[in-house]
Amino acid sequence: MTLTVRFAPSPTGRIHIGNLRTALFNWLFAQREGGRFILRFDDTDRERSTRAFADGISDDLAWIGIQPDIVHRQSERVSLYEAAAERLKAQGLLYPCYETADELDRKRKRLAARGLPPVYGREALRLSKEERAELEREGRRPHWRFLLPNFGSDPFSPERRLVTWADLVREEQSVDLASLSDPVLIRADGSFLYTLPSIVDDGEMGVTHVIRGDDHVTNTGVQIAIFQALGLTAPGFGHHNLLTTLDGEGLSKRSGALSLATLREEGYEPMAVASLAVLVGMSGSIEPMADLEALQSRLDLSAVSQSASKFDPAELDRLNQDLVHQLPYEAVAPRLARLGLPKGEEERFWLSVRANCTFVNEAAGWAEIVYGDLPGGRDWSDEDRIFLDEALACLPDGPFDETSWKDWTSALKAKTGRKGKALFMPLRLALTGLDHGPELAGLLPLIGRERTVARLGG
Q1: How far is CA 415 from CA 313, 338, 395, in A?
Q2: Top-confidence residue, 255 or 376
Q3: Cα torsion at 263, 266, 267, 268 (round to 10°)?
Q4: Directed axis angle between helix 313-326 and helix 270-279, to 10°?
Q5: 48, 273, 306, 424: most buried, per Cβ within 10 A?
Q6: Are strands 94-97 and 143-146 parallel, antiparallel or unpaired?
């Protein structure tokens, strides 16, 4: 059987870097093993799911470099879930419950007051046919719970089964079903919660491995029981740690926090985002990977931390900066084309300024400094004004090239006796208007003689 994984976001917002962490763990795992990657939209929430969000998620994944082998939408597969629900009902494993949300909340509070776990007591199983009919005449519509398995035949026995699996990330894991309420699979309005459609699709699509956040560990114990009840082979499971903010808050798709769309708009490189999403909380250094193939070589599910990992914006900036400093001209040429650089100087310009860019779009600022008009009015000291006049007089003849800066400053040093900061800083301030920036040996040929003369006050 072909190794098959899936990423199943609900299209109720754009995905964030935490969602990407899950998608990449699955994608890289499948690529390494020669497997398939399914993108499956959990869009059964009719009120909040939109096609625009689904398309946005596809665009976000494509920006990173993830191309699914197949795309499914759960809203187009409801008949499969209905058939599975009927099978469970026929086995007596899916039963109707009529409590309202307020009634259930009061039950939980009473249990908590007695120091007992807030586990549903299966009261609905004690209802007679006549009692159920009376509740429905009152206008109540049932929600449906899955009957978690027991060791014995008594559904009210507290001795339920311990579900154990070999986790791909966390080694052996166990969930005691005795500590859990029978899960609701169908709401009172007839719509499905996440659980049953996910299980049916995993079985029908041949999903062999599910890698997801460790907030699903308890769910996995329940889902394995439902897989078995439906006669389906449960996939292997792996639960990675979650990504939080520096304050320890969870990331939310609906809030837009750290969404890939926002990070893209802010100018981050996709591999900076991908590198941090995968490597944070994993043993080894966090460094920018050149591409997904290189990132795949670093993937080690057994090396993922058991505790939550924190997203540090400064770390992302560092990774992005490191990547930008290494980007060849060919990788940024389409973006630089919008700057209207002089023809023939585009590559030389990029190689001169990239070491001073955290984002590629910062090249626009350097283009303005090199080719634009600098604001005048700098208040030079008499000593510096005399120095700049000397600098103007020492300018090399002919067009500037890569040796002009050294020739010029050497002659100026010999003539004025200045050296170090006293020599270079006035020139930098005059030529760029800034006290920092790219090497002037590279910028001088781009600034050219005419602008250089004008900026020196000539």
Answers
A1: 48, 42, 12
A2: 376
A3: -30
A4: 130
A5: 273
A6: antiparallel
Residue 438 DSSP SS3: coil
Confidence of residue 372 (pLDDT cuts 50, 70, 90): very high
Task: Supply the DSSP symbol for 442.
Answer: H
| Residue that is written with structure tokens 């026929």 in the block | 90
Q: What are the two backbone dihedrals, phi and then psi, of residue 57, each rounded to the nearest 5 degrees?
A: -65, -40
Sorted by sequence, the CB contacts under 8 Å of residue 306 that are 6+ apart come out as: 170, 241
- Angle at the Cα of 244 from the Cα atoms of 326 and 175, rounded to 5 degrees: 125
- Pick the range with the lowest mean pLDDT from 13-22, 42-51, 199-208, 232-241: 42-51
Average pLDDT over residues 376-392: 90
Task: Return the structure tokens found at 249.
Answer: 């808050």
Write out pLDDT tens, residues 259-270: 999 999 999 999
C-alpha distances (whole Å) from 248 to each of 256, 263, 309, 311, 312 are: 17, 20, 9, 9, 11
Residue 211: CB partners within 8 Å, gap ≥ 6?
A: 5, 22, 25, 26, 29, 168, 169, 237, 238, 239, 240, 301
For CA atoms 350, 356, 361, 365, give the dihedral sign: negative
Task: Give the pLDDT confidence score for residue 259 in this predicted structure.
Answer: 92
List beta partners, residue 162. 176
The DSSP secondary-structure symbol of 19 reads H
Dihedral sign for Cα atoms in the order 351, 354, 356, 361: positive
Residues found in the chain:
458
Q: What average pLDDT does range 33-54 have in this prediction?
A: 93
User: Amino acid identity, residue 268?
Assistant: Y
Taking the C-alpha atoms of residue 451 and residue 299, their distance in angstroms, rounded to an integer, is: 51
Contact 428, 454 (CB under 8 A): no
pLDDT tens digit sequence for 145-187: 999 997 556 776 766 688 999 999 998 999 999 889 999 999 9
Residue 1 pLDDT? 82
Q: How far from the centroid of its chain's Cα atoms is residue 347's Cα? A: 32
Which of the 8 DSSP states describes residue 458? -
Per the listing, tokens 């899936």 go with 6
pTM for the structure as a whole: 0.90
Residue pair 375/455 in contact (Cβ under 8 Å)? The answer is no
Closest CA to 199 of 373, 79, 99, 80: 80
CB 245 within 8 A of CB 256: no
What is the Rg, in whole angstroms, of the alpha carbon atoms belonging to the chain?
Answer: 32
Does the structure show a pLDDT above 90 at 77? yes
> What is the rounded CA–CA span in Å between residue 446 and residue 398?
14
* pLDDT tens track for 84-131: 999 999 999 999 999 999 989 999 999 889 988 899 999 999 999 999
> CA 235 from chain center: how many Å?
24
Distance of CA 351 to the CA centre of its chain: 30
